[in-house]
Specification:
The complex is a heterodimer. Helices cover about 70% and strands about 0% of the residues of chain A. Helices cover about 75% and strands about 0% of the residues of chain B. In chain B, helix 14 runs antiparallel to helix 15. Chain B is flat and about 80 Å long. By secondary structure, chain B is mostly helical. The chains are: A mainly alpha, B mainly alpha. At the A-B interface, helix 2, helix 4, helix 5, helix 6 and helix 8 of A face helix 3, helix 6, helix 7, helix 8 and helix 9 of B.
Chain lengths: ~325, ~300
């Protein structure tokens, strides 16, 4: 019949005319309610994002920052400079450049985070005394402020004699000399990846745990009847059930890791082979004050992200639909 | 003598104990215990190290070997942070107040605005609803570092024309944090509102209540758990935020805690015990808040991103 009759929420017996006016009033009210949020998000996220495309084509320094619209247009010059920058481009295995480092770092860190999260969720999925407490403790790394945990890690990894990890490893005889973990090429990247897994596994753990507890128990009973052992049950019952969560988690964490600035900035400052695109963007903009170059770097970061998302949507997501 | 007997089991009993233990330990149990120990130590040790280091003296911090257990609860580091008569006084109290001045308004405004918006998205029909939901998804994707440059330019443009200080303006930070947190808050709340049966609100509508009074009298009281969790989340994000504060704040007296801790760490004479004391002060409220309200918050954490 009418629009009103289709909508089960709004069906008091009134005439059609008043209905329409009520509907219009509701829509107006909706816009009023959402307007403050929409304005803030548009003004401080969507508009700046579009605006930064313009900045990446312009020559903007501290001097003309307050007057960006009249900044000289330089076309693709800033992009060319970024691509030719030694901090950005690949120069062989001794110096990866920020683009390759970013990709390697975010893929390995995301995979490790998911793996640790999976193990943790399997540990917490079986009943034992003190499970609630263990679960709470497992969440702490994710909840604690990034600045605190990053500096605690730096302090634990300190190369001076008072650094505790060096002391433990020296006493165990695992190393002969103190190591500067965060100031050694290669090792620094590895430590940063381990840090990511340490800090962000609880997020993955919670998601996986929620899904694990929704798995139909009869599936395991059926597997028991078929004589499956624990490993087979994990491989053929649990993992297929977790496929969607793991896929979604991988995507979400990859995006967030790729965009992450704080962790690497605080741990290594982008030195020793850990420089990634967000930190490079910061250095170009707020250390050399070349805002155009910084914006160009950020745009390259976004393009890599979007390309990855398209590939992901067209291959992996398509695969799971079938 | 008898007390000693009971404290130390005799040889037979000890054998019995080992025997029982051997029977109790199976491979799965052993692996479980091993993994659990590994997880618990690697999670808890950094936090133990943070708190214990904050009670060490400068001599213990810079010695030839790390001090695993501080000799006494020495407050040297805390005095450096708070005591104006200390030679290297950091005036950390001001930074705590700045952080609170940013985090509390952010949380309150975010709850109010996202409640209104979420109600509209969950209950009212209007053109452009799909667009709003899509732009929420886009916010998930956007790198904060991409926004910082245009925001910096915009704010200094506005500052140049109406003449207010761009740098060191806490209001600017509150607005940027709102922009970062509102979309997720709106998403979480609208999901929660959908779980409240529509019939309750319909009863109110039939009784002649206006939408606003329905929101105020019916929906809000039912949504208190979700409101609390949104408030805590936005509070925590504003409390912890580093990048925007690093770019927008310049003078030490306006710094929030994260930026001040970064400054203390980069001091020419390394003072890890002071950094650890400041980190402890910053960490404890957040962790305590989270653990106390864990039940609410976990739901929000999972509802906010993956469904099913």
């Amino acid at each position: 019949m009418s629009v009103a009759a289709k909508d089960p929420r709004l069906r008091p017996p009134v005439s059609r005319r008043r209905w329409h006016s009520l509907e219009a009033r509701e829509a107006r009210l909706a816009w009023v309610l959402i307007a403050p949020t929409a304005l803030i998000v548009f003004g401080l996220i969507i508009f700046p994002a579009i605006f930064s495309i313009w900045i990446s084509f312009a020559h903007v320094t501290l001097g003309n920052l307050h007057d960006v619209f009249h900044a000289p247009f330089v076309g693709l010059e800033k992009y060319r400079r970024v691509f030719n920058d030694f901090a950005f481009k690949w120069q062989g295995f001794h110096s990866w450049g920020a683009a390759v480092t970013s990709i390697v770092y975010s893929f390995t860190a995301t995979s490790l985070t998911l793996l640790v999260g999976l193990i943790a969720s399997l540990l917490l999925n079986r009943p034992f005394r003190g499970r609630g407490l263990a679960r709470a403790v497992f969440l702490i790394p994710y909840v604690a402020p990034i600045v605190s945990v990053a500096f605690v890690w730096r302090w634990i990894l300190d190369p001076r004699p008072s650094g505790v990890l060096n002391d433990i490893l020296l006493k165990l005889g695992a190393i002969d000399l103190p190591i500067a973990y965060l100031a050694t090429r290669g090792l620094a990247l590895l430590i940063v990846i381990i840090f990511e897994a340490w800090r962000y596994f609880p997020f993955a753990m919670l998601m996986i745990l929620a899904r694990l507890q929704a798995v139909d128990k009869t599936l395991y009973e059926a597997a028991d009847v078929d004589g499956a052992n624990t490993w087979h049950k994990f491989l053929h019952v649990t993992l297929p059930e977790l496929r969607y969560v793991l896929g979604a988690l991988f995507l979400l964490r990859l995006i967030w890791t790729f965009n992450k600035f704080d962790d690497i900035f605080l741990l290594t400052g982008g030195g020793f082979g850990t420089n990634e695109l967000p930190v490079l963007t910061y250095q170009f903009s707020f250390k050399s004050f070349d805002f155009g170059k910084g914006a160009a770097t950020a745009m390259i970061l976004l393009v890599i992200l979007v390309v990855f998302l398209l590939i992901y949507a067209n291959t992996i997501m398509k695969g799971t639909d079938e | 003598m008898t007390a000693q007997d009971s404290a130390y089991p005799s040889r037979d009993e000890r054998l019995n104990l080992i025997d029982r233990l051997a029977r109790w330990i199976t491979w799965p149990r052993f692996i479980f215990a091993l993994a659990m120990t590994f997880f618990l130590t690697s999670i808890l040790f950094p936090f133990y190290w943070m708190v214990s280091s904050s009670f060490k003296t400068y001599a213990e911090i810079g010695g030839r070997e790390p001090v695993y257990i501080p000799s006494a609860l020495r407050l040297d580091a805390y005095l450096e942070l708070f005591d104006p008569s200390n030679p290297s006084f950091w005036n950390f109290g001001v930074n705590i107040i700045n952080t609170i001045k940013i985090a509390v308004p952010t949380a309150l405004i975010a709850v109010i605005l996202s409640t209104l918006g979420a109600y509209a998205v969950a209950r009212l029909k209007f053109g452009g609803r799909g667009m709003i939901l899509n732009s929420i998804l886009i916010v998930y994707l956007f790198p904060g570092i991409l926004l910082i440059i245009p925001l910096f330019a915009m704010v200094s443009r506005i500052g140049a024309s109406i003449g207010f200080d761009v740098q060191d303006n806490l209001v600017v930070l509150v607005f940027t944090y709102l922009a970062q947190t509102l979309p997720v808050a709106l998403y979480m709340l609208s999901n929660y509102f959908r779980t409240i049966p529509v019939e309750i609100e319909q009863a109110g509508l039939i009784d002649g209540c206006s939408r606003i009074s329905i929101i105020w009298r019916i929906t809000l009281p039912l949504a208190i758990p979700a409101l609390v969790s949104v408030a805590i989340y936005t509070f925590m994000i504003a409390w912890n935020e580093f990048l925007y504060a690093l770019v927008f704040l310049n003078s030490r007296d306006m710094f929030t805690m994260p930026i001040k801790i970064n400054t203390i760490y980069n001091d020419p004479t390394p003072r890890p015990h002071v950094v650890m004391a400041a980190s402890t002060i910053m960490t404890i409220p957040v962790v305590v808040l989270f653990l106390a309200l864990q039940r609410f918050l976990e739901e929000g954490l999972t509802a906010g991103s993956v469904k099913g």
